[in-house]
Structures
1.
Amino acid sequence: MLIGTDCEEARLNVVAAHDCLGMSGRLLTLSKSRYYVNHPRFVPNANVLVNFTKVWSGDLDLDRDEPDLQRLADVAGEVVHVLHEMDGRFNYEDHPRIERAVATFLPEKVEKVEKVENTCDSI
């Protein structure tokens, strides 16, 4: 549980994420598998973490959203990780699997962005 200044910092990071990416829960398409065909860097139900704390979740298209994710890292002054849904929810809500990040953004530069695996087969 976050307390004191950690709680305030997390709240500010959530506000920054909403400013950069829009409201949490964003849905880019009703057909995730169809969208993925033309957008291979699509991450459905992504989790965005700042300083290891989830601040946003929703659909991301890294081709479109990469500049906004970088801006979030710059504004927060912290590392931003993008995780698949299953790596940051359910059994991993308290301990997200950062090592499986789809993309990691450092303030001022992009550290790594990899092609997203097709996770839409089961949708």
Note: The mean pLDDT is 87.
2.
Amino acid sequence: MDKIQLSILFGLFISTSVCAGPIQLTAADNGRTNSVNTGSEIEIVLEGNPTTGYSWDVASFNTNRLQQIGAVKYLQSEQSDGKHRVGVGGKFVFQFKAVGSGQGLIKLIYRRPWETTSSDKIYSVMIEIK
């Protein structure tokens, strides 16, 4: 390969690694271990419906290895006619950044803030940070 081809390949490698978005996790990843590199962003997307009084909240995470980015976001599901309706569910979005190597557990809970019961849903994911 000549220098021009190597330069193009290097440029493509850098642009794809820089432009790569956060690692997305969903309910299917509950209880799993996921490997990421230090500096990677992790986005957890879980379905919920706050009009029922329930919402997803952070129960705990390893602050030595993970940093939460901003507050949890809620995105209401859009209906087929493009409108938003009262009582329709959506998705809760949590964002974290891997800041230190090792293992970090993220634990989220789906509950009504004024209640604590054994039926609360728990989401937990282990993040292995390289």
Note: The first helix runs from residue 3 to 19.
3.
Amino acid sequence: MFKDPNPINRCKTADEVRAVMVNADRRGRFDIVREGEARLRKMLRLPYGEGTDVERELHAALIFYADVRKERGERPPNRTWPMVERHGWIGTVERLMDGSKQSGFQLLVDIGRPDMSFEAVVIKYPDAFSLKAVNTAYERLATHRETA
């Protein structure tokens, strides 16, 4: 029976893809690494059934935010998707937490839904993020509570 020579095809989650990519890189199988990168890009856009819980919740938060912007007649968050494709969900959120408060967070606060922000997901899954990102998320949410 034919056995698929590319283990990426058997992966069900983004974490499995990443693990295969690490092993393929160690063995010099850069073709598999490239396949894994392509598969991750596709997976990271899938809302359910793929990726980790934190990735699915970050995806849901971004979709919610995009829908709010659409309802308000605003443009979609066109810069965030390319960041996710380049850096993954965690890397993207780490970058967004490393700076001034984001307009997306402020919009969600303004409509009374900070619970649908990336900051809320960071607080829910602190082990998935750097200490700096977690502290930033806490500060932003605390500032919101103080001004509410």
Note: The chain has a mean pLDDT of 83.
4.
Amino acid sequence: MMVSFTELKWTELPERNGMQFSVLSGDPKTGAYAQIRKVPAGTDNPLHSHSSELKNVIISGVWYTGADAASAKDFGPGSVVVMPGGWTHVSGCRSGSDCVFYQGGEGEVRLCAGRGREPGQVALCPDRTSAVVRGFIGLHNKSSHGLTGEKV
């Protein structure tokens, strides 16, 4: 596949006002996928986790993520951010410029609420009913990242 940025077909995430995605291959609702994401400058995502690992490559803007707002790190263009499934964290796009990034995943996409979890711990979405936002981001869980926590 070869496609220029101007040819991408964008879809708004209904549950995340202003965020958009363009699927390059696969289907994030059912299995492996690759997509480009656009997030408005100044977007802050509170504590949450994903059902499985995410691989992001920042194209533009400054994306941040960390166990909490105080420890969050900034990642500019060219940065690679791999987040293990179940890792409770904050994330977002710093003000000044919208964020665009490539995202790859291996399975159904689910976002899990951060309530009841300690920042930086692994807390897996136990089942489909725990997903508070469907179609956001996520992959299958990997335990090789050295993070500890318990299933909830």
Note: The chain has no helices and twelve strands.
